[in-house]
């Protein structure tokens, strides 16, 4: 997100309906130049910036060093979490257990509050595959869902959003992916 006005809108959506008390940690996927990151930090949100592009890391790390623990910058790619490989995982791919350890988030029961909110933009090339991977992990209670319920706030194409929110009878959009996401999650259009 490179537009300050869009960053403020996203920040309001992410904090909308927040209850008093400690807010969950926000994992920002691919923050890039950090415009949304700064907006979130200015609103008092604790952020973990998960950046896979090394060109953006120095600026984000400089911002991290100027703050007192409100921001943590991690080199990694959210959409390459828990790759199905044997042996060593090479960055920017990473394992969710290492990420959550770095963030300082421990597992909580599914009935507890959401410990982590995640914000990201689905990669257009593999959007459907990514949705399936997130869904499999949800039903297996693996990867990011091993730590309890997680709130996903993601930008996606209108096409995929229509599939996830389709109603029975819509022959083009209503699919197995639709049913499984609707059973497992509350899907809302935030903006």
Automatic annotation (TrEMBL):
Its main location: mitochondrion. Pfam families: RrnaAD (PF00398). Its EC number is 2.1.1.-. GO terms for biological process: transcription initiation at mitochondrial promoter. InterPro entries: KsgA/Erm, SAM-dependent_MTases_sf. The keyword Methyltransferase applies. It is an enzyme of class 2 (transferase). Keywords: Methyltransferase, Mitochondrion, RNA-binding, rRNA processing, S-adenosyl-L-methionine, Transcription, Transcription regulation, Transferase, Transit peptide. One of its GO terms (cellular component) is mitochondrial matrix. S-adenosyl-L-methionine binds at residues 1, 51, 77. It is found in: Mitochondrion. One of its GO terms (molecular function) is rRNA (adenine-N6,N6-)-dimethyltransferase activity. SUPFAM superfamilies: S-adenosyl-L-methionine-dependent methyltransferases. Belongs to the class I-like SAM-binding methyltransferase superfamily. rRNA adenine N(6)-methyltransferase family. This is rRNA adenine N(6)-methyltransferase.
């Amino acid at each position: 997100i490179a537009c300050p006005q869009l960053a403020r809108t996203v920040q309001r959506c992410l904090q909308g309906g927040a209850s008093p008390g400690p807010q969950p940690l926000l994992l920002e996927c691919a923050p890039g130049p950090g415009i949304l990151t700064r907006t979130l930090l200015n609103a008092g949100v604790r952020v973990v910036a998960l950046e896979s592009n090394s060109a953006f890391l120095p600026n984000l790390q400089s911002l991290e060093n100027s703050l007192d623990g409100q921001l943590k910058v991690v080199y990694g790619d959210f959409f390459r979490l828990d790759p199905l490989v044997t042996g060593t995982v090479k960055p920017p791919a990473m394992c969710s257990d290492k990420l959550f350890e770095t963030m300082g988030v421990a597992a909580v029961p599914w009935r507890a509050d959401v410990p982590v909110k995640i914000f990201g933009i689905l990669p257009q090339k593999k959007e459907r595959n990514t949705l399936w991977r997130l869904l499999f992990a949800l039903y297996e209670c693996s990867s990011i869902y091993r730590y309890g319920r997680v709130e996903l706030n993601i930008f996606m194409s209108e096409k995929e959003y229509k599939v996830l929110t389709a109603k029975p009878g819509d022959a083009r959009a209503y699919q197995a992916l639709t049913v499984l996401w609707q059973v497992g999650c509350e899907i809302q259009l935030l903006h």
